[in-house]
C-alpha cells in the first residue's frame, strides 16, 4: 500500500512539518492490522485487531510528544499541553475500527491527520498556545453490535448502557463480555464521561465517501453539517387474493400502492432542500407468493438532512404521500417512526474558519458540502463546537476494499487541518486577551 500511495505523490506537499512519506508509512502499517484476503480491512470493535491499531496510534502520539491516556470506554487520547492557554483545548481525531471487508481510509485518515499536526509542531520546534488532543474513538462503525459511536457517546455521557448491556455480537458474546476482553466494564464506560466546557472546537478529518469532490476536481471540502437520519416504517395493507381469479378492477393490491409510493418519495427531497435525501432501502411483501396478490407491504424510508426543519418537512410530506396513495388505491396505510437523530449543523464561525483555511492553504475556492453519514463529530458536536474536513474519495467508494484517497489529497487536507487548528487557537487567544486559563 505504501508504494501505491507514493507512486503519484507530489513530494512538494511535504512541508511545514507535514510529511507525506510518514503518512504513507503509517497508513500502510495500519492496513496490515486485520487485513483481509480481498485487500480490505476488518478491525472489529473491541477486538485484538482494534486494540493493536490503537496501541500503534498511541506510540505515534508519544513520538509526537503527546502524553497518552486511555479512558474507561477504550478511547485513546494523546495530549499536547498548550503554552499560553493550557486550560483551553482543541480536539481532533476519528476511529480505527472498521466494517467487515472495509477500506483503509475511513477513520484512520482522521486519526493520523490529528497526530500529524502534533508531529509537525514538534518537528518545527513549536508548541501550540492551546492544549491539543488527538483522539481515537472506540466502536464508531457499530459493526459488532449493530450499534456504533460507543466511544464518543461514552465520552459525552450520552451512552445508553442499559441498551448496550442487552446486545450480543454474531458469536453470541455479550457487550459486557467483549468489554472485559479489554479490561473494561460498564462502570468504566460510565466513568469515561468528560466535561467539554473547556473545548474550543473538535475538528475531524474524514474521507468524503461520495463523489462531489471528485466531480469538482478538488482534494478537500468543508462540511457544513452532519445530516440527522430519521427512519420511517410504512405499511400498506390491502387484500390478498388469487392472481388468476381476481379481476384487475376488483383488487386491493398493496404492492401497487407501495410501488407508486417508492417512485414518489424520490421526488420529495429536492422540492424542499438541496441537501435532503430519502431512500427506500428495505421492503417485505406478504404473502410473497408467485400467484398471490400482495395483501401487505412493509417498507422503510431513510430520510436525512442537515437542517432539522427541512428534514421534518420531508417526513411530513412522505407520510402525507403514503396516505394519499393509499386512499387513491383503496388500501390502508400506517407509518411508524423507528428512529430519529437530530441533524448537527457546523457553527457558522467554524464553517467560515474552515473555508478561510482552504483558501489560505490551497488557494482554491472553498467547496462546502453536507455529510450524509454520521461521525463521532456529530456526537461531540452536541457538547462542543465542531467542524469537519472531507478528503476526496476515488469513485465515491467506501466500506469496501477498493476505498481509496490519493496521498496528495490526504496531505492537502492535513495542511488545511493544521491551518484551521491554528486559526481556532489564535481566535481563542484573542477572545481571552492572552490570559492564562488553567
Summarize this structure briefly:
By secondary structure, this protein is an alpha/beta fold. It is built from 14 helices and 15 strands.
How would you portray this structure in words?
The protein folds into 2 domains: 315 residues, Zn peptidases (Aminopeptidase, 3-Layer(aba) Sandwich), CATH 3.40.630.10; 113 residues, Alpha-Beta Plaits (2-Layer Sandwich). The chain is built from 14 helices and 15 strands. The strands form 3 sheets. Strands 1, 2, 3, 4, 5, 6, 13, 14 and 15 form a 9-stranded mixed β-sheet that branches. Helix 3 runs parallel beside helix 4. It is globular, with a radius of gyration of 24 Å. 48% of the residues are buried. The C terminus is likely disordered.
Just name the CATH architecture of the largest domain: 3-Layer(aba) Sandwich
Q: Can you tell me the CATH superfamily of the largest domain?
A: Zn peptidases
**Strand segment count:** 15
The secondary-structure element order is: HHHEEEHEHHHHEHEEEHEEEHEEHEHEH
Determine the CATH topology of the largest domain.
Answer: Aminopeptidase
Helical proportion, percent range: 25-40%
- Taking all Cα atoms into account, the compactness measure Rg is 24 Å
The coarse silhouette is globular
The main pleated sheet reads as: 9 strands, mixed
Structural class, judged by helices and strands? alpha/beta
